[in-house]
Amino acid sequence: MEKVTNLPAIPYKLKSVKTGKIFDDKGWQLEPPDGEGASLIRAIYKEDQLVIGSDKEGLFKYRSWLPVLKSMKGSSAPVTYKSEGLSSVLGLKNLWITFSGYWPEKGAQMSTCSFKETEAYTVCGRMGDGLGKVLVVASAGNTARAFAKVCSDNKIPLLLCVPEDNLDSLWFDDQLDECVRLVCTRSGSDYFDAIHLSNIIVSFPGFIAEGGAKNVARRDGMGTTVLSAVTTIGAIPKYYFQAVGSGTGAIAAWEANLRFIDDGRFGKQKMHLMVSQNSPFHPIYDAWKASSRDILPMDDDHARHCVNIMDAKVLSNRKPPYSIVGGLFDALKDTDGDVSIVTNEESRCAGRLFKDVEGIDIHPAAAVAVASLSNEVARGKIHADDLIMLNITGGGEALFKAEKNLYYLKPDYIFDINPSIEMVDSVLKEMFSFVEVL
User: Fold this and answer.
1) Which pairing describes strands 272-278 and 180-185: parallel, antiparallel, or unpaired?
2) DSSP assigned state of 277
3) How far apart are CA 278 and CA 182, in angstroms?
4) CA-CA distance, 395 to 378, in Å (whole number)?
5) Which residue ranges form the domains of the chain, and what is each CATH number?
6) How far is residue 160's CA from residue 184's CA, in Å, rounded to a whole number?
7) Mean pLDDT of 173-200
């Protein structure tokens, strides 16, 4: 079990993006106080200027801008470096790559090979020791793998909800502690169905929702990619490229950017958020190009069909935090950003190119981001001297698997797409009989 170290008190408050009202964090607060309206909340930190700790602290070296109550060993921070190979191919002079994954040669040691580790460590770091509930996380794969590792290492009761077709994403280099359990929605379902199941589960006493984009710890953990980039480069980039499913990482990047503007040492630039989706599943692209604040209606069966076709299944969120105040729509508007789509073939070519010229394998979602950058350069949108941050959200999996013996997490139960409340209740009581709160 990883050792947990309680941190000195780090004062932070919460603010409603909609009203600007500032209030205390009274625990696992995911929304503004009653009556404030639908809005994301943000963490307001004591330190206006980022204070960076020792590299030995991993991700928690950024704790002055993280809403955490405790620090856990074993984390790894994103790594930023100036590209030589890809920049040469694309004709770019100021392309910087922020890599989250497994690449020991670069100092990247994320054993789940995904930037989802950044949010798993910070969300668990925000949990008080007396919370006494089972954390529930819905995921298309990478997020589940990250939370499973962190919770297993720290004996935090966790229930994962993952589509059965995504089980091949739940690999680990060691057996997990029994505190981590897994249920699935049957084959043919998608991430939205896993979210629906998780919503049923958190309606029962003893379970608590991780919160997704509404959890300030998740967003500020993901925002460490920008903390790494800006402090390494010494300036705020002009463009930020990332593939998105929910867009939470892009919202986090925007919020980190705003903090750096207040910091005052890295310029006043607002990065243009250049986000991309994997065709044929692109609800954010469709809404953005229609100038709609709301995600357009989707037929459930058609959405599942599109998800089945796309390579980057982790990008398959049917209800992203797009329209909510402080969400992705507002982030794109404020930064004069844009959304593009990338085909499977384009992303596959981009993934091969990245491996050839940068020297490491990357996940399909990261390849979508690479392809979108290449496409924007070809369209003349990006110029040779532009300062660019490319967020490679996962990579080194092939390298990691070649070096390790792998274990796969098996589901405790597979539910139908629309399970009865009675069935869910019965399964949960059997699975978590060892948890006192249940």
Assistant:
1) unpaired
2) E
3) 27
4) 25
5) 79-111+217-400 (3.40.50.1100), 134-205+406-438 (3.40.50.1100)
6) 8
7) 93
